[in-house]
């Protein structure tokens, strides 16, 4: 359930421009939720589970990307050319299939794929960063 609540806030950040009121509110609510949820877990004797939560103020503690890093990555992914996006999906399907989910749209539209950044561990995040840096580097070379 906590994951679903986080999804609401991360989606609000994803679909609203960084710096907009909605984006900033969602980031604030997510931070408050994580802090409150960690307090509840600790009160219930779940210290180890509470310590595993990503603290947006201290992402280094968990080795996971911060919410801001996830937001930047989302923007970078959305800017990929279709062929490069296809290569990314192939990479994820091979290395991290749990990060991809097929979605059938209402009304029978074409199927889509959702990519869940939240399931990536530190090593998987690093591979995604490497892929993106390589693709962005090649894109800069082509523009010259």
UniProtKB/TrEMBL annotation:
Domain of life: Eukaryota
Organism of provenance: Tetraparma gracilis
Keywords carried by this UniProt record: Bromodomain
Annotated protein name in UniProt: Bromodomain-containing protein
